Amino acid sequence: MKFRAAVAGSDGIRLTMESALTARDRVGVQDFVLLENFTSEAAFIENLRKRFKENLIYTYIGSVLVSVNPYKDLEIYSRQHMERYRGVSFYEVSPHLYAIADNSYRSLRIERKDQCILISGESGAGKTEATKKILQYYAVTCPASDQVETVKDRLLQSNPVLEAFGNAKTLRNDNSSRFGKYMDVQFDYKGAPVGGHILNYLLEKSRVVHQNHGERNFHIFYQLLEGGEDDLLRRLGLEKNPQQYHYLVKGQCARVSSINDKNDWKVVRRALSVINFNDNEIEDLLSIVASVLHLGNVQFAANEQGNAQVTTENQIKYLARLLGVEGSVLREALIHKMIIAKGEELVSPLNLEQAAYARDALAKAVYGRTFSWLVNKINKSLAYKGAECPGWRSATVLGLLDIYGFEVFQHNSFEQFCINYCNEKLQQLFIELTLKSEQEEYESEGIADEECLRPGDATDMTFLEKLEETVKNHPHFLTHKLADQKTRKSLGREEFRLLHYAGEVTYIVTGFLDKNNDLLFRNLKETMCSSENPIINNCFERTELTDKKRPETVATQFKNSLSKLMEILMSKEPSYIRCIKPNDAKQAGRFDEVLIRHQVKYLGLMENLRVRRAGFAYRRKYEIFLQRYKSLCSETWPTWEGRPHDGVSVLVKHLGYKQEEYKMGRTKIFIRFPKTLFATEDALEIRKQSLATKIQATWRGFYWRQKFLHMKHSAITIQSWWRGTQGRRKAAKKKWAVETIRRFIKGFIYRNYPRCSENEYFLDYIRYSFLMNLKRNLPKNVLDKSWPTPPPSLCEVSQLLRQLCMQNMVWSYCKRISPEWKQQLDQKVVASEMFKGKKDNYPQSVPRLFINTRLGTEEINPKVLQVLGNETIKYAVPVVKYDRKGYKARVRQLLLTQNAIFIVEEAKIKQRIDYANLTGISVSSLSDSLFVLHVRCEDNKQKGDVVLQSDHVIETLTKTAMSADKIDNVNVSQGSIKFTTGQGKEGIIDFTSGSELLIAKAKNGHLAVVAPRLNSR
Ligand SMILES: Nc1ncnc2c1ncn2[C@@H]1O[C@H](COP(=O)(O)OP(=O)(O)O)[C@@H](O)[C@H]1O
Ligand SMILES: [Mg+2]
For ATP, which residues are the binding ones (predicted)? Predict the structure, then answer.
């Protein structure tokens, strides 16, 4: 084949795959299709046996998985095992449930077609276990999200609850499903499980009130008694001992070593919370379970009339409480029967047998309906939330069918009849879907003509007669009457025998009609309708009471629901798991050949194999085949324009399929050998790798280009936006500027008008800018006389501000001034008052600071100081004294104290002039430094006025005038100064200005002083 060459390139992969294959095949063959002698049943069973002994319980017939119950835990369901099967081609790994599960899942994802996995086999063959394992596989391997986790949990946890209420120990299986279950798992487009839905089929209610020897009632009863907390049991009025309850002791095996009711109870309690049960609902549910047990213990005795009376009042009390009904009403309902005849209600008492019947019917009805309620409740918690949103893509579903298996007991009743009928139907479906299309001669063995189940009006026996009449000619139907002499012995009069696909089953007709009618007396129904237990109330609807129509019989309901199931299954892509039970003893390692051969036969496995081998191992609609493999041929890749049929032709020719390897049908291609398909699959796998690389590269290119384009687009958008913004801002600014300028000009034009809308802005602005300008250019100090020119409107304000400013500067200047400096200034002020503009040498003194004193105490004779005592010297200065007569100049010191002026010569005080006696001070207006102290002369001690000269005349006089407080008595004279001497004589000093200082006695006897002219003058 051409594509082999392509495959050879990856020798490595191929080699590892082959070694894995041989390792797998060491024990028998992993696919019966590969059996040398495929027609031999012995070889088939030998292969099963060989593998079973090595714990290889799974073997394929093509794509059908045959599973043999190992009855022991095998280490093949771990997480690692799940991972090994995940996404791997069906044929690359050893046969396993997981391979089937994964294959269905992948078909669902790839083809988006609903799938179903049909698990068949007789009771105890491992169907329920297989279902659970498949569910676990999906829970672990499917993609998940937060919401999905809860869905997964609920899907898994619905099992223990349903098993507790719907499974029981039978002779065939310690955990036998007593109801049929079809579970849909819904997957979203990402392949995550997002919801689920369960359909339940006919629960074997009769088990509630009766169990065959060696069997038990439903698990929940024992679990509750074993595991329930003391408190709970007390509330429910129950005792821990199952032997106390009539409904639990019929099979005489309440305790079974393989079942741990206590543990199971914990599992169930936990599961109930996972699937959304709140505490109230759990209490209500368990109340019903308990009420069934109490009902079982209700006893009757007959009164004289033979009418039944309740003798167990205690039970009625509990029942009333648990079911939320009136005790008396319930009691009466249990022992009476109400019929409506011609529109009138007739109540008649029941005899013992009838009362027991009514009680059991109530127990069954209560339990059966509660079970259906439970399934509904679980469905609500599993519901796919997405389905409620219109516009969401609908989920694809994968169905798991786990229905009670074919079973034969010593006594087989209506339940077995229904169960086996159901299995018969499924077998038919299996045949139809796998074999029949190719093998027209395959004989459908189905019987169970539903017509025979139309109830006759009288008894079970008349029903049997009617049955005999209707189907007497059917080769698979036999009764005592119809049988020949030999077989007649093995059939009772009330029995009929059916030859099922899985073997003969003899049914006892007793109870058939009752069970079929499933009769619950009207008054009991009514009582239940008034129940205050919300579950019971929900299960019994009042409309049932008013409904005139005769209710459908159990068989009809069952038949209808089954035919609906068949439709569901037919609409899906099926996968098959055929479970085989290796022995009847539930024992590990025991391979009962007879039993197994029987199952191989009735399951039609040999036919299945033969068809696989003779026919075509693989077939697919052209569209689907082409879709899957078109990438392997350049002409069909990436799209084939013509008919799919032609496309497939081209494709297989390209792949080098040989003539005998395949056939082209009307709508499908048939491939004879699995190996052809494996090779194609392998080639696809390799092709996928390279395609994936290509797609990745293309995608990356595309992705980055998109990213780049997106960024570019974003950049341009931002740029243009920014430019726009900038432009708009600029324009706005311009507009604002133009308006402002315009306003200005207008304002300027109108500036001298009174304030109006044209000039107000301008005026405000002028004011504002004046004030701002002023703020920036305030005078720095008191001497700084600058001041901005105010606009007319602010003249007054400006003036006020200017004053304020000046005041402020002065104030702050004053605040900074030291006391010494103040004193200095005070003196300077006084000096200025006295001499400014009056005496020529005054200006020279202005910049020279006045000194505190010109002579230190060390320069004054201590004797003088001693005489002065505590009269402190405030000022001392060297002076020259001119004698009053000869005007001789003598060096003296002038001292000022608190009270007087002292003229001192060395150690001698020459003259003391008290300030009070100082009448004035005279000085010339010229630049000389002579001055005269005028002294009051009344006092003889006084020597008269004193003519002195100080080099610091301004300072000396200022201090003297201030000390003596004679500021106003300083007299600046032009020309001459007169003075008096001690004896009332006068002297005169004449002042003239000349080039240099000259002090001398003039010829006229005056003292002539020539003061130099100063430059400033
Ligand atoms: N794959 C398995 N591995 C181990 N034990 C199994 C397996 N399948 C079934 N069993 C055992 O067989 C018993 C019956 O299986 P079950 O699935 O309930 O049968 P069915 O549903 O077909 O009646 C289980 O309780 C379990 O003990
Ligand atoms: Mg089961």
Answer: 121-128
